[in-house]
Amino acid sequence: MDMIINKMPSPTWNWLKVNQSSLNADILSESAVSFSKPESVLYESVQNSELSEISTGLGEDFSKLINSKDLTIHRFSVAKGVKIDEILRIDFNFDMEKKSAGIIEFDIEPGASLKVIMDYSLSNNGIDGGFGAVQTRVRLCENASLHIIQVQRMEGNFTFVNDLGSINKDSSDFNITKLLLGGKNTYDGISIDLKGHESKFLTEVGYLVKGDDRLDINYLSRHHGIKTQSDIEVKGVLKDRAFKIFRGTIDIVQGAVNAGGRETEEVLLIDDDVINKSIPVILCGEEDVEGAHGATIGKLDDELLFYMKSRGISEKEIYEIMAKARIEELCQKIGDRLTVDRIHELTGGVSYEEF
């Protein structure tokens, strides 16, 4: 299927070639998924769901594809007022030789809270490449909170699609932490609908793109409710001949009085052959709001380089240290030993005990 994905809600000049991306892919099987859940988390597998109508970051074409395949929907819910301290862990293990996908749903009822770790990895290596996708749908009810941590640990000739959409009601609090650490082609999309008054959304993302890999990101936070807040923070490292595009849009619609949105991106360019495109956008249909956006792109400060070189550290080592430091910054916010150790196994970072 030929799809238009990661389409910006408000296009810019066509000649810049950043408004959208295209993808040709099919889904032939269900991905291997396992999970360990706290007792208070309710689980069911279903074939149809009302949450399939939620808008997601990749867009309509991808949703049509994944909904046409009769995939099992893994649905997790937390009952009203139940606050869960234990972590729900969901592991996806993709096969390099297959084209597979999975669907996850979270339904968090009023006053409930949950923390989730979603880990994506490959089970084998292959030269032909494969395709994997996960679509995550969220309904966050009044005064509920949800923290999703997604870790992508893939290397080699593999295309991965990570799609998410949510509806957030009054006074809800939704946090997303992402680490994107590999894959030949990665397409990452988020669409957040802040329907409820005083609902909040925060996403913190770290990425490392190297070799000839490509990372394509599209995040949208749409404000409907009064006093809604969103914060998009992205930090990443590009090396070798890597390509990355980041589209970040905060859309404050008419009626979202006293809403506030902020988005920032910091990109560290290690090599001269990398390609970076950053498009931070704020759309505003209401007067009484606050918004800020920006991107910092470049190499390390000359004074910092001089300081570290004067202590016997080579320039190559300095850039490697700074690249790992950006990953470690998010690792310390995960708070789960197994997940952090898996990340360090891939990146060569310090052990969990050394934090």
UniProtKB/TrEMBL annotation:
Residues 108-323 form the SUF system FeS cluster assembly SufBD core domain. GO terms for biological process: iron-sulfur cluster assembly. It comes from the Bacteria. This is SUF system FeS cluster assembly SufBD core domain-containing protein. It comes from Johnsonella ignava ATCC 51276.
